[in-house]
Amino acid sequence: MMTAQVLADGVLDGAMIGLGAAGVTLTYSILRFSNFAHGEMLTAGAYAALTVSGALGSLLAGSAEPIGDTSIGWGLIAATCLAMGFTALLAIVLDWLVFARLGRKATSITVVMASFGASMALRALVEFAFTSSPAYFNRDMQIAVPIGLGMRVTPDQVALTVFSLFLIILTHLVLTRTQVGRSMRAVSENPALARLAGVDVAKVVRITWALGGALATGAGVMLGLLVQIRPGMGFDLLLPMFAAAIVGGIGSVPGAFCGAMIVGLGEALTVAIVGPEWRAALAFCALIAVLLIKPSGLFGARA
Amino acid sequence: MSAILEVDALVAGYEPDMPIVNGARLTVGHGEITVILGPNGAGKSTLIKAIAGLVPVFSGTVRFEGRDITSTPAHQLVREGLAFVPQTDNVFVAMSIDDNLRLAAGILPKRERARRIAEMYEFFPDLAGRRGLAAGRLSGGQRQMVAIARALVVSPRLIILDEPSAGLSPKMVEHVFERLTDVRASGVTVVLVEQNAKAALSVADRALVLVEGRNRHEGPAATLAADAEIAELYLGGLAAHAPETRPARRLAEVGR
Fold first, then answer.
1. According to the CATH classification, is domain B3-87+157-255 in 3.40.1280.10?
2. Which residues have a Cβ under 8 Å from the Cβ of A135 and sit 6 or more positions away?
3. B104 CB near a chain A CB, below 8 Å?
């Protein structure tokens, strides 16, 4: 059944994919390789937030008390911030441990395979620590309220979409308005010249990993609140995230967000019109279409 | 005049068993323009890249203002007052002129950045009206100005340029070299590699002719410019532009 609800679902899905895709586009353009372990950053972020919010809940009564109509307490907000820091650190350690040693080149199949390996290892580690059964931030039932045109959304969905948009705009402002952002764009375009301009490239690489990890945590918490937390959650989002980043144009954060909206809405439409088993095919189709027609993507400067 | 840059017995290149610079020496005085000339493949660019920390040095030393800076990474050298302008890809094309300058000015103390950038727009008035434009949309000459401004914005004491005239129109070449004499007048020492020997020698104080990675000739620029033999052998075509230094050539042309 095709209703306006499909649009609401698609936007929500897109907002979540967008956070992951923003990280993918930054690591791809600045570090110059496809990090297939990015999905696990999302998973790790979600589990880290779950662990911290659980600890806060048992230590400080009232930390899980919902704010407004949402199911989200300040404990989870604090936990998300801490989880962002943790995942940022995890990404930096992973780079130091694996990718930096292999030379970090987009053309090198070794590094791509290593990122697949890292992805599997991290997933297995998460499953070992938290089991494969799904976990939840809370089990509160949310009542969807009508927002017109027959669309209904829960307060959590509204809050999380705003949260995603806020992080994307913040990232965009950091990239365009700050010295750190200029350094990142410089390294993305021409690392050799960036060095000559006094940019400490190693530091920019660390900042990029940290930012990618923090954004992935945002996506992980969002997915955890909307659906559930499980070890494979991030890996399942890998294709939509890469599709969104490439559709939007590698290196562009607003592009990644728009690409994610296209993928999210496309997936929701596919589910409604063709059937849910075709959901994943949409991301593939969007990816192939963009690569064939405009390889540089919607906002991309280079292919 | 005391030396700001001293290069001694430098051996550098990409492969240790195949050095491109092979024992080159260079002494640059404060406030001078020094041009490095030589045939293609003589190692001119490699020499300045090795000085700037962009190419591995296998032996020999580079001293800047008396300190040993051999093999210091490029992002460190610019903080020490040595700026380098590459021949190609020397601006961030996707970034505005302003962002190119602001990026480079990042190593200055915060309160000095805006003032230095304003000074660059005064020095290169052509750029001032285009500051919001992506550097990739500029002409070759304007890009070269952005590249030089990017290097100068941090107030270096030495600026090294790799073929700043490459690919520019004769009028633009003249303009770039004029700016370099202004740079010297502001107290900054200049070292450049050039194919355009005639134009370079006309503004330079001293010149070095590099052949096969070693010094072949060196001295005051005017002396080298007047030396017909050097012109003929190493500076390809310079003699053709200055026939008065070579009567035999003039006769040959008349007899043609």
1. no
2. A47, A50, A224, A228, A229, A230
3. yes
CA closest to A181 among chain B residues = B103
- What type of residue is A281? A
Give chain B positions within 8 Å (CB) of A175.
none
Inter-residue contact B27 to B158 (CB < 8 Å): no
Find, among A52, A78, A68, A254, the residue nearest to A145 by Cα. Answer: A68
Tokens of A112: 């791509």
Report the SS3 class of residue B12.
strand
Could you say which of B75, B85, B91 has the minimum Cβ distance to residue A200?
A: B75
Bridge partners (DSSP) of residue A152 are A146
Q: Is the C-alpha dihedral spanning A257, A262, A265, A271 positive or negative?
A: negative
Say how many residues make up chain A.
303
DSSP state of B16: T
ipTM field:
0.85
Q: What are phi and psi of B54, to 5 degrees?
A: -105, -15
Q: How many CB pairs under 8 A join A and B?
A: 65
Mutate to test the interface with B, among A175, A178, A196, A203 (most CBs of B within 10 A): A196
Across the interface, of A189, A193, A199, the residue whose CB is closest to B90 is A193
Contact A179 B52 (CB under 8 A): no
The encoded tokens of residue A84 equal: 């962002």
Among chain A residues, the shortest Cα distance to B104 is held by A197
pTM for the predicted model, two decimal places: 0.87
Mind listing the domains of chain A with CATH numbers? 5-293 (1.10.3470)
Q: Return the SS3 of A229.
A: strand
pLDDT in tens, A89-144: 999 999 999 888 887 665 678 888 889 999 999 999 999 999 889 999 887 777 88
Burial (0-12, 13-18, 19+ Cβ within 10 Å), B244:
exposed
Taking only the tens of pLDDT, chain B with its 256 residues reads 579 999 999 999 999 889 999 999 999 999 999 999 988 888 999 999 999 999 999 999 999 999 999 989 889 999 999 999 999 999 999 999 999 999 999 999 999 999 999 999 999 998 999 999 999 999 999 999 999 999 999 999 999 999 999 888 888 899 899 999 999 999 999 999 998 888 888 899 999 999 888 888 888 988 888 887 777 766 665 444 444 444 444 333 333 3
The partner residues of B56 in beta bridges, in order of sequence, read none
What phi and psi, each to the nearest 5 degrees, are found at residue A70? Answer: -80, 175
CA A101 to chain centre: 25
Partner residue facing B102 (CB), from A182, A193, A301: A182
